[in-house]
Amino acid sequence: MIEIEHITKRYGETAVVDDVSMVIEPRTLTAIVGTSGSGKTTLLRMINRLVEPSSGAIRIDGVDNRSVPGPQLRRSIGYAIQGNGLFPHRTVAQNIGTVPVLLGWDTARIKARVDELLSLLQLDPAAFGPRYPHELSGGQQQRVGVARALAAGPNVLLMDEPFGALDPIIRTKAQEDLRAIQKRFGTTIILVTHDMEEAVHLGDRIAVMDAGKLVQYATPEEILANPASDFVETLIGASDRPFRLLSLGEVRDAVEPGGAEGAAIDVDATQRDALAELLWSGRGAMPVTSGDGKVIGRVTVEGLVKRAARPT
């Protein structure tokens, strides 16, 4: 658990983070979202003390982060940034092994961990371990950056706009990888992003920052249904809100009895994907299949539109 209590950071007379308090539960992903200059990156960097607060406290599993020497604290917290920050003169394997080496792990343990993370991120260890960052695509570099942040098995992973420089297709895959990692390791992840779509897609909870203030901290469903201010409503985008609500639900929750013609959709797909396919194909209904390919019912445009309506 991460407890942020009345944290403030001032530069001169300006408070870039202004009296922020929030609790981040273990094994969850919290997205911090806001416009440029809202204080979201400064807040993130105070967790691992790359930035020191002017006042307030941050406790990680009950321990004040100021009671731990900065270098020791940062070795226990994963940190991934936009552009990955890989060391260009080190191989992929050496990059991933950076913190384990500092912690004194033996060679065999480091190699096993590097191979495990590369395999998890669908990069063949034998092929990619000896390569240098410049020999990788942008998406591959980003995955290596995440692997390096996770190498020492931290309970907490901080991510500052990690996918911002990726093209949309690679970005979607990177987001899927991140969810797979969290499910595998139970890591507590705090992700800074300016993209509300990404925040809604990934976050168990979303913290909305504006001018250094925390203006809303809630689940994606709550923020979409009940934005706390005009600023939050603008950030959501009124025209996108119904589709973002649908993106939070799976087709399994919208299945209706009955049959339908044409191509089917899997029960694990999002309701947003189902509506898009129905509209694109000009159908009012489509079959839904379970993991084994068995048809278990149908999903309809009418039913999905009702689900996209603002909750009362």
Write a concise synopsis of the structure shown.
This protein has 312 residues and is α/β, with parallel strands linked by helices.
Report on the architecture of this protein.
With 312 residues, the chain is α/β, with parallel strands linked by helices. It contains 14 helices and 13 strands. The protein has helices at residues 40-47, 70-75, 92-96, 98-102, 107-120, 125-128, 138-150, 168-185, 196-202, 220-225, 230-236, 241-247, 271-281, 301-308; strands at residues 2-11, 14-24, 29-33, 55-60, 63-64, 77-81, 156-160, 188-193, 205-210, 213-218, 265-266, 285-289, 295-300. It has a six-stranded mixed beta sheet with strand order 6-7-8-3-9-10, with helices on both faces. A four-stranded antiparallel beta sheet has the order 2-1-4-5, with helices on one face. Strands 11-12-13 form a three-stranded mixed beta sheet.
Layout of secondary structure:
Blueprint: E1 2-11, E2 14-24, E3 29-33, H1 40-47, E4 55-60, E5 63-64, H2 70-75, E6 77-81, H3 92-96, H4 98-102, H5 107-120, H6 125-128, H7 138-150, E7 156-160, H8 168-185, E8 188-193, H9 196-202, E9 205-210, E10 213-218, H10 220-225, H11 230-236, H12 241-247, E11 265-266, H13 271-281, E12 285-289, E13 295-300, H14 301-308
Parallel strand pairs: 3-8, 3-9, 6-7, 7-8, 11-12
Antiparallel strand pairs: 1-2, 1-4, 4-5, 9-10, 12-13
Helix pairs in contact: 7-8, 12-14
Question: How do the helices and strands follow one another from N- to C-terminus?
Answer: EEEHEEHEHHHHHEHEHEEHHHEHEEH
Extended strand count:
13
Which outline best applies? globular
Note poorly predicted spans. Answer: none
Give the N-terminus to C-terminus distance in angstroms.
Answer: 32 Å
Structural class: alpha/beta
Question: Mean pLDDT, as a whole number?
Answer: 90
Q: What percentage of residues falls in helices of 4 or more residues?
A: 25-40%
The neighbouring-strand order within the major sheet is: 6-7-8-3-9-10
* Largest sheet descriptor: 6 strands, mixed
Beta percentage is 15-25%
The whole-angstrom Rg is: 21 Å
How many distinct helices?
A: 14
